[in-house]
Amino acid sequence: MITVSKRMETVISMVTKGNKVADIGTDHGYVPIALIQRGIVPEAIAMDVRKGPLQKAKENRMAYQMEEKIEIRLSDGLQQLKAGEVDTIIIAGMGGELIARILKEGETIVQSVKELIVQPQSEIYKVRKQLHELGFQIVKEEMLIEEGKYYTVMKAVAGRQTYKDEVEYFYGKLLLEERNPILYQWLEKEYCTTKELYKKIEYVDSPAAIIRKEELLHTLELIKGGIAYYES
Predict the structure, then answer these.
(1) What is the pTM of this model?
(2) What is the spatial distance between Cα 100 and Cα 94, in angstroms, rounded to a whole number?
(3) Which residue in 16, 95, 127, 145 has its CB near the most CB atoms, within 10 A?
């Protein structure tokens, strides 16, 4: 059995059994291999924009004797995927802005699938907003810590979701409603870090510092809004 990280285990746990999967940015192809090994999916398409990782994915596919079950494609985002070809799209381990762009540019493909499983490394709010704009609702969201880093994994399906405010976009409507303890830990840590950053430039009056102070104050207000969920 192939071994994957805790982060990828969380991604795998959200895939609906029996679905055909496309793993975008597959790297070495570990997720498709693990999904098939565990009997979660019958077949998968492993896609990446880089030739090097795809070559490694081909080698791993051969090592685990999955040539008939995993198709490998060189693709920038969803460009080489056809509408209706898969049930589940996985996009994990990329920046939030990039994931949002891939979803937007591949809207026709996105609208044809049953579920999206995404794990942004940064700017998670941009992914939540893009999912909302595409008519997808987040039905499951988990936050985890691995090797000292915080990760968020989301599962979305077609449907409408109402966001009360910017705080829910930034920190996750479901995570906040569930009073997720890992998110709370992260919010407290971010509040302290942001406050320290503000103190360092509090009395600097350059144009750049003024703009940065406004950004930091806004972030502090958002974080306080997130923490307020736990105190209500």
Answers:
(1) 0.94
(2) 10
(3) 127
In 3D space, the residue among 147, 145, 94, 101 whose CA is nearest the CA of residue 118 turns out to be: 94
Distances (CA, A) of 151 to 8, 79, 120, 205: 10, 27, 8, 36
Q: Reading across the β-sheet that carries 21-24, which strands appear in turn? A: 70-74, 44-48, 21-24, 88-94, 115-120, 149-158, 136-146
What phi and psi, each to the nearest 5 degrees, are found at residue 166? Answer: -65, -30
Q: Which residue has the higher pLDDT, 16 or 1?
A: 16
Q: Specify which residues 22 forms β-bridges with.
A: 45, 89
Closest CA to 172 of 158, 157, 193, 151: 151
Residue found by looking up tokens 């939030």 in the block:
96
What are the helix (H) ranges across 83-206?
Answer: 96-105, 107-110, 124-133, 166-171, 173-177, 181-201
Check: CB of residue 169 under 8 Å from CB of residue 128: yes
232 — pLDDT class (breaks 50, 70, 90): confident
